[in-house]
Amino acid sequence: MRVVIVEPCKPPYERDIEDKLEEFQKIVDGLIEVTYDRMLPGCVIVCNEEGKISNLPMNRFVGPDIIFGTFFVCGEDGEEFCSLTDEQVAEALEIYA
């Protein structure tokens, strides 16, 4: 699955990952939580559910909230995650640069 990974204090990058819960948890270093960024329609942000209380480093503002720890952006197809399109990758890389 094609995603954009956003680590604290680093530029975002594109990567292909396995579409498995274990892979998602490995990337975000814990339990996952799904949130949305209105600037990226058709996409979701997958982050660490306990990022704030686990003292993970502050990463990026998403709307009025702050995400702590590494997160990734992927597409959504109903209730399933899916690969990002070329356009979505370009937008996510620009937004989180």
Please tell me about this protein's structure.
By secondary structure, this protein is α+β, with helices and mostly antiparallel strands. The protein contains two helices and eight strands. It has helices at residues 21-28, 86-95, and strands at 2-6, 13-16, 32-35, 43-48, 58-62, 65-68, 71-77, 80-82. The strands form two sheets. Strands 1, 2, 3, 4, 7 and 8 form a six-stranded antiparallel sheet that branches. Strands 5-6 form a two-stranded antiparallel ribbon. The relative contact order is 0.26.
Estimated structural class? alpha+beta
- Uncertain residue segments: none
Question: What is the number of helical segments per DSSP (H or I, 4+ residues)?
Answer: 2
Strand content: 35-45%
Estimate the global geometry from the Cα principal axes: globular
Helix content: 10-25%
Give a quick account of the main beta sheet: strands, pairing sense, barrel closure. Answer: 6 strands, antiparallel
Essential attributes:
8 strands, 6-stranded antiparallel beta sheet, alpha+beta, about 40% strand, single chain, about 20% helix, about 100 residues, two-stranded antiparallel ribbon
Summarize the structure.
With 97 residues, this protein is an alpha+beta fold. Helix content is 19%, strand content 39%. It has two helices and eight strands.
Secondary structure layout:
Elements: E1 2-6, E2 13-16, H1 21-28, E3 32-35, E4 43-48, E5 58-62, E6 65-68, E7 71-77, E8 80-82, H2 86-95
Antiparallel strand pairs: 1-2, 1-7, 3-4, 4-7, 5-6, 7-8
